[in-house]
């Protein structure tokens, strides 16, 4: 018996109506609290999103885009202060940044670290060429023993006029040579001073005044009781005093209206007077 083929079914035409819900489409469930007319934020500015939500450019972005060097536009005085905070080698390298920076280091307050440089000739050349007043000068105490004339010439340089900080830092050495008298031409401007491995003689120190000195360190120095008491009395704003391995004093008496910090470390040498008494008579110590 012959089998008849099944007639194809006609597809039913759907009536146009409301769009299917997200649940029917299998999409994510959107909270009914969000209005149907709300458009999602666009991650691309200007792509239909609200322009008020576009994040502002970070500070300095305009300068980066137009290639303007804002730092170099600062006054010389401000740039000089920035340079004076750098290590000696880094400060000297600022001359190669741009034409604008070429003259700044020589006219900035001098922060000269002689211990950071390779030879004493470099220190001499810097002091000869620098035009601005000195801010800080640091050099190894051993130069007092081996190059006393050179150190004296350094200290007399106009580049160190009105020096605020001097650091003659301790190094290896057995002798304690005299500190040059030229060191104390800065006594009226010094705020911080460190003297190491030297002899501070009475004929120089007894006549000194240190109206601005706030921090004083004496490390492995020879100094008499009279000289030490005279320096403390001549420093009306002295706040910190460090006496480390010093000789020449048997008894130290502290009288100061501002001294708030004292460090003492005595040394023994049978050929010199050494500390036996340390008395704080009047000082606002904590």
Helix/strand class: alpha/beta
| Secondary-structure arrangement, i.e. CATH architecture of the largest domain | Alpha-Beta Horseshoe
Q: Approximately what portion of the residues adopt beta-strand conformation?
A: 15-25%
Q: How would a crystallographer describe the biggest sheet? A: 7 strands, parallel
- Tell me the number of helical segments per DSSP (H or I, 4 or more residues long): 10
Q: How helix-rich are the residues, as a percent range? A: 10-25%
Widest beta sheet: strand line-up? 1-2-3-4-5-6-8
Q: How many E strands?
A: 9
Question: Low-confidence spans: pLDDT under 50, at least 5 residues?
Answer: 1-7, 25-49
Mean pLDDT: 79
Overall shape: it is: elongated
Provide the gyration radius in Å.
Answer: 38 Å
| Total individual domains | 2
Oligomer: single chain
CATH topology of the largest domain: Leucine-rich repeat, LRR (right-handed beta-alpha superhelix)
CATH class of the largest domain: Alpha Beta
The ordered string of helix (H) and strand (E) elements is HHHHHEHEHHEEHEHEEEE
N- to C-terminal distance: 122 Å
Region (Disordered): 1-65
Pfam family, one: F-box
Domain F-box: 71-111
Domain F-box/LRR-repeat protein 15/At3g58940/PEG3-like LRR: 151-284
């Amino acid at each position: 018996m012959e089998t008849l083929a099944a007639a194809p079914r006609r597809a039913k035409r759907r009536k146009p109506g409301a769009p299917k819900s997200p649940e029917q489409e299998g999409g994510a469930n959107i909270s009914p609290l969000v209005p149907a007319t709300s458009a999602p934020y666009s991650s691309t500015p200007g792509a239909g999103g609200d322009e008020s939500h576009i994040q502002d450019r970070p500070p300095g972005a305009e300068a980066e885009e137009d290639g303007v060097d804002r730092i170099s536009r600062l006054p010389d005085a401000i740039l000089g202060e920035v340079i004076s905070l750098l290590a000696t080698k880094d400060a000297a390298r600022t001359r190669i940044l741009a034409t604008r920076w070429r003259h700044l280091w020589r006219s900035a307050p001098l922060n000269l670290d002689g211990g950071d440089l390779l030879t004493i000739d470099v220190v001499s050349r810097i002091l000869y060429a620098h035009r601005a007043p000195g801010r800080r000068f640091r050099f190894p105490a051993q130069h007092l023993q081996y190059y006393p004339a050179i150190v004296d010439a350094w200290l007399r340089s106009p580049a160190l006029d009105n020096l605020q900080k001097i650091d003659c830092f301790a190094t290896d050495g057995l002798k304690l040579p005299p500190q040059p008298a030229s060191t104390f031409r800065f006594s009226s401007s010094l705020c911080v001073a460190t003297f190491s491995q030297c002899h501070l003689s009475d004929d120089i120190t007894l006549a000194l005044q240190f109206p601005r000195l706030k921090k004083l360190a004496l490390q492995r120095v020879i100094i008499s009781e009279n000289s030490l008491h005279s320096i403390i009395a001549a420093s009306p704003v002295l706040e910190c005093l460090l006496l480390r391995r010093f000789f020449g004093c048997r008894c130290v008496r502290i009288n100061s209206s501002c001294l708030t910090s004292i460090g003492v470390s005595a040394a023994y040498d049978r050929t010199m007077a050494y500390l036996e008494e340390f008395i704080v008579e009047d000082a606002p110590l904590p």
